[in-house]
Write a structure and sequence with these properties.
Layout lengths: L4 E9 L4 E7 L8 E2 L1 E5 L5 H13 L8 E9 L4 E9 L12 E7 H4 L6 H21 L7
Length: 145
């Protein structure tokens, strides 16, 4: 039997330095912004799960090798592994085909003012650090790791 895990992530638009978050409006009176995410128990990789999710939520086809890992951690609250990813995109996708789901682009600075969980904030901060490190590395600058 394969272990349950949760794969989540965001799209990153380098030109505007924005990330795409989602808000599911049917679950509460005060919906929060979250990473795109999905549970998996089918023995697939996190990248495969996120690829499928991006197809469902945004009607977006992404190649597996474009999905970059941010980090993984074990969530005691949900008793499962969480795998966080990001995908660089060339255009800003704005429409979700799913009912009760809104997607929107935000700069990292704007996210500080949004209604997001502490874990989502942590995932975004680490995601920003991974992106910044990748940029420095591509410029030939020194990085840690």
């Amino acid at each position: 039997m394969h272990k349950d895990f949760y794969a989540s992530g965001f799209l990153y638009h380098p030109k505007t330095q924005q990330i795409l978050l989602q808000q599911i409006t049917s679950t509460s009176d005060s919906p929060s912004w979250t990473l795109l995410g999905k549970n998996s128990t089918k023995g697939r990789s996190g990248q495969e799960v996120l690829k499928e999710l991006l197809q469902e939520v945004l009607n977006l086809k992404i190649k597996i090798d474009k999905i970059k890992e941010v980090y993984s951690y074990f969530s005691k609250k949900f008793n499962q592994d969480h795998n966080i990813y990001y995908v660089e995109v060339k255009r800003l996708y704005r429409k979700s085909p799913l009912e009760n789901t809104t997607v929107s682009w935000f700069t990292f600075k704007q996210i500080q003012k949004l209604n997001v969980s502490e874990q989502t904030k942590q995932d975004i901060i680490i995601g920003q650090r991974v992106i910044d490190s990748s940029i420095r590395k591509s410029l030939g600058q020194r990085t840690i790791g």
